[in-house]
Amino acid sequence: MKLALPTFLRTTTFKLALIYSAMFAAFSAALLVYLYYSTVYYIRTESERRMDLEFEQLGNAYYTGGMERLSQSVLERMTRTGSTYFYYLEDASGRKIAGHFGRLPAAPPQSDVVQTVYFTFEQKEPDGTIVERPAAGRIVRLTNNGGALLVAFDTAQQTAIVGRIQRAIFIAAPIGLVLSLLGGILISRGAARRADELARTAEAVMGGELGRRAPVRGSGDEFDRLASRLNAMLDQIEKLVESTRHTGNAIAHDLRSPLSRLRNRLEIALSEPMSKESAEATLGETVEEVDRVLGTFNAILRLARLEAGAEGERVRMDVSGLGEELAELFDPACEEAGLSFKSNISRNMTVLADRDLVGQALSNLLDNAVKYTPEGGAITFSITRGPNNTVDMIVVDSGPGVPEEARERVVQRFQRMDSARTQPGSGLGLALVDSVADMHGGDFILTDAGGPPEAPGLKAILRLPRV
Q1: Under a CB-based contact definition with an 8 Å cutoff, are residues 376 and 449 in contact?
Q2: Mean pLDDT: which of 170-179, 185-194, 197-206 is highest?
């Protein structure tokens, strides 16, 4: 049976943490090795330098004053306080002249070549005990005399320092490796836990929990940024799913009446003989009903293309000219409906937008105002400078308005107030205006127009950034 590894051990973050741990361990090992060899090398180099200095001074004494001056220098150094060196001097016959030892620890070389020797010697401690201590030194055969000179020093302290360094390295190396592995595991587990939270959120949404959101801890790290963007995406998905969920019912509700009228009209026409005039009237009314149904489907298709970003080409344009054209177009329509119409179009209101889409959105707002404002009411259309360098395109009517609690709903697809069911339309007009605002980075705002409670009116603002 194959043993399954824990989830976090199979994650990319753990593999990266493992690589980091290996690199950290390699760096630590290299650093410790460097410290060890550089320290030991310094100790040994310093010892050799000082040894060379001792030999140089004793050599000067020998060459300037002979054996007598050399023996005097050796005796002076032996009695010097704080000296860490040991000396031994003998003549050509091997007789000891001066020194710390009873005899040479090794035979001197036959020529004047300096020979390095390592040996041990016995030393009496203050408490009377005899201990054996390591030493290192140099022996040289004296020219023109045949005697021999030894200069040595106690290496116990040096050996102890090197030993302590070695023990420190042997202790620090595994501790550093273990800590790096533990750090890598902790880091990978934390990252894996955050990734699992995102995965569980995605699985829950796939399972139908559209209201599920990824946790945001407020740390501002990459997982928080990813969770925030994921939540924004889920909000949009939930909005689209909810819109789609109601689309079928809304389409059926809005198309049932014209299709029922169409069927009844055709059924009545077939149930009795028709004259040419009645047949032409029936066919004309049928064509009108079919045109309204096709208009609804065309509006659905255009809105779908708009929300998918497949429609619209933004150019720098002055909406003042567009507003004047719409004002001229809707002025007679308002007069025919028994409404007063006023326009206030400011000049040089430039935006980066698609002219056809903005025109369609403003036409929808004006058409709704004409449709839902009772006879004798008033409509105002204005284009002015808005806050924060924006352009406000405003349509104000004196109709029944839209209650505050319903304003967010009426801009959704196929959402119509009950009082509007008797009016022709598909419930897509304000949804298209809202999509045009989103596409251009603007806002679509619905507020009361300030009328009396029985007819507060509606103020619709399409606000786009000014360029």
Answers
A1: no
A2: 197-206
